[in-house]
Write a structure and sequence with these properties.
- It is a single chain.
- The chain has eleven helices and eleven strands.
- The chain is an alpha/beta fold and about 300 residues long.
- Helix 7 links the parallel strand 8 and strand 9.
- The radius of gyration is 18 Å and the shape is globular.
- Bound molecules: zinc ion.
- Zinc ion binds next to loops.
- The site of zinc ion has 4 residues, from loops.
Length: about 300
Amino acid sequence: MASKAEVGAVRDFSADHRWLSINTATLRKQQGAEVPLDRIIDQCAAHGIGAISPWRDQVAAVGLGRVAKQLKAHGIGLSGYCRGGFFPAPDLSGLRAALDDNRRAIDEAKTLDAPCLVLVVGALPGALEGKAAYKNLARARAEVHDGIAESLRYAREVGMPLAIEPLHPMQAADRACINTLEQALDLCDELDPQRTGALGVAVDVYHVWWDPKLKQQIARAGRDRLLAYHVCDWLTPTRDLLSDRGMMGDGIVELRKIRAWMEGAGFDGFSEVEIFSQLDWWQRPGEETLATCIERHRSCV
Ligand code: ZN
């Protein structure tokens, strides 16, 4: 057990859930069936959820304008917008297409008044579909560097912060070749040395809980680089590396300790619940998942 002094003073979440945000992937499927975003937003509103983080495909399916209007009507804000990134490509036209797509993502984030666009930066192009176009991870990382640099120009113009989300190294081949907070912050320092707030990180406990440098790198990030905080839990055993995320409190992540590090570094934003759970929560009624998120937010986060 960590001592109280070691953990430090954290915001008290036990009395209400004003700092709870729901990443809408958490409710994407309910009782095994895909649920449209407008219904998810109504469910969140009914539970007094103050913020969500929706995914681009969910928004597109309902319509960007409609979603913006619905959020406004409910007084629900965003804690982030998922997601931009996937910069690497096998050729120039692919690289260009990725930049265009990120530009559109930035515009959508702007329309929805998101505080940041989350970047899952991509890795070996084609690997996600089982056919990597090349195997040179250093090349992928260089393409990510250049892609973020280019996107940042436009993001600055319109005033949309970009949040690099380091992903667990198990996803280095297919989803993101930025795998530690340190690596993400090195990029931030290079591309935004003035710490303007235009570039930062999304800290997702599922991806970084194991990192021996986590505490140190969160402190290094500081308030102006800590743009988003994603929570869930790491189950033992994990049955599916992508979509067997646990509900907070059901696994081994020291959630209170990590939040204390975040808040010690100045973070005072939402705690966003992001649970992909094909085998468990996506099979349950949305009401049950949402009620459990609220209860665990108060008791475990
Ligand atoms: Zn995340």
